[in-house]
Amino acid sequence: MNRLKIVAISLGGLVAISHIGLLGYVIRQPKRTIEVPTINIPHGPYSSYRIEAGKDGYSIEYHADDPKVLESQKSLSLDKERRGLFGGGTESRREWRTDQFTREGTRNLGGATDTEGKSAKDIECIVADAGARSQGAMAGSAIAAGVAVPALASIPYVGWLAGGWALLLGQKAGSSLGSTVGTVFNDC
């Protein structure tokens, strides 16, 4: 009984000391200083940003290529008085022209790009690449199914697994080769 009391008192003392140490740590927390973050915003001739900071936090609005589309407005005013044998008249003409263009000077003729900014040639290349990948994958899997799979299927125990791997490898290689060939033939 005497040993049991000593062990119980020792464990109780250890728990009490650890609780006192934890309370001391919690009570004497070091004061945290709030540091303002350093933000390195990339900037260039066509980028812009706006930073708003206050007590509650900050917000950043950043445009990497701003303005993406430039505008030009031209107007023509013509007031002309006509004289002639059958009567005269005045002609008054007002014309406005608004052009949108990129900073390289390419004028937007309308309908040349979609909502994501892709041109008709880019879309044509994406469609051609998808078709070429699909055709290449079918050809690659057909060649693998005719040549490699029958040879690998005869391997005991793992032949079915090796045949499946060969089929997938043929499909992936065919897709990649089809994409390369499609890119060359479609001038993309």
Describe the structure.
The chain is α+β, with helices and mostly antiparallel strands and 188 residues long. The chain has 3 helices and 4 strands, in the order H-E-E-E-E-H-H. The strands form 2 sheets. Strands 1-2 form a two-stranded antiparallel sheet. A hairpin with a 6-residue loop joins strand 3 and strand 4. The longest helix is centred in the last third of the chain and has 34 residues. The radius of gyration is 38 Å and the shape is flat. The chain starts with a helix and ends with a helix.
Write the layout of secondary structure elements.
Elements: H1 2-27, E1 48-54, E2 57-63, E3 70-82, E4 89-101, H2 120-153, H3 159-185
Antiparallel strand pairs: 1-2, 3-4
Helix pairs in contact: 2-3
Proportion of helical residues: 40-55%
Which regions are unreliable across 5 or more consecutive residues at pLDDT < 50? Answer: none
pLDDT averaged residue by residue? 81
Query: Which strand order spans the largest sheet, edge to edge or round the barrel?
Result: 1-2
Strand count, sense and barrel status of the largest sheet are: 2 strands, antiparallel
Instruction: Give the H and E element order.
Output: HEEEEHH
- Distinct helical segment count: 3
User: How many strand segments?
Assistant: 4
The 3D shape can be described as: flat
Q: What is Rg?
A: 38 Å
Structural class: alpha+beta
Q: Approximately what portion of the residues adopt beta-strand conformation? A: 15-25%
The N- and C-terminal alpha carbons lie at a distance of 90 Å
